[in-house]
């Protein structure tokens, strides 16, 4: 219930122009949007469970949450459409989040990078698992492993490939 309150409070902070951008995304893909909303709640819940101290700041838990978020959006959407359409929607939704709720440049770089890590993980696992049989646990375990090798992002032009990144606590 707390996660829904956080989302509701965030939506209340949006300007009319930003609400229109969000509605364009929602109405262009209503089923994907429902899946994306569910993925948002699920990723918050799992990040709270596994990284209660760092998922809501710029720590390792935030990196885990962002990458898990894109994995889950893509996974749920690919159950009702093609994996490529699911990936496209995941990118649109997560990029829009960064536009609607802007951060400092380094934080934005971190979030966008970790979102891409999640999409890459989905693509990596896709050839070995039929999209209908994906489970959340596949991503959680892989991403928990990635947190052990996560890198500290210090400059906007840093490039850590497919590693999770976070800011100093």
UniProtKB/TrEMBL annotation:
It comes from Kaistella jeonii. Residues 24-151 form the DUF6973 domain. Pfam families: DUF6973 (PF22322). This is DUF6973 domain-containing protein.
């Amino acid at each position: 219930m707390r996660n829904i309150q956080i989302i509701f409070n965030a939506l209340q902070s949006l300007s009319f122009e930003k609400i229109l951008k969000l509605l364009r995304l929602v109405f262009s893909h209503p089923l994907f949007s429902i899946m994306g909303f569910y993925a948002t709640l699920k990723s918050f819940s799992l990040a709270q469970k596994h990284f209660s101290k760092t998922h809501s700041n710029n720590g390792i838990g935030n990196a885990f949450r962002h990458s898990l978020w894109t994995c889950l959006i893509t996974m749920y959407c690919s159950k009702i459409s093609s994996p490529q359409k699911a990936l496209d929607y995941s990118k649109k939704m997560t990029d829009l989040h960064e536009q609607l709720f802007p951060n400092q440049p380094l934080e934005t770089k971190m979030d966008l990078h970790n979102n891409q890590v999640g999409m890459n993980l989905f693509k990596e696992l896709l050839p070995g698992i039929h999209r209908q049989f994906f489970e959340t646990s596949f991503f959680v375990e892989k991403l928990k492993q990635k947190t052990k090798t996560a890198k500290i992002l210090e400059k906007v032009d840093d490039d850590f490939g497919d590693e999770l990144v976070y800011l100093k606590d």
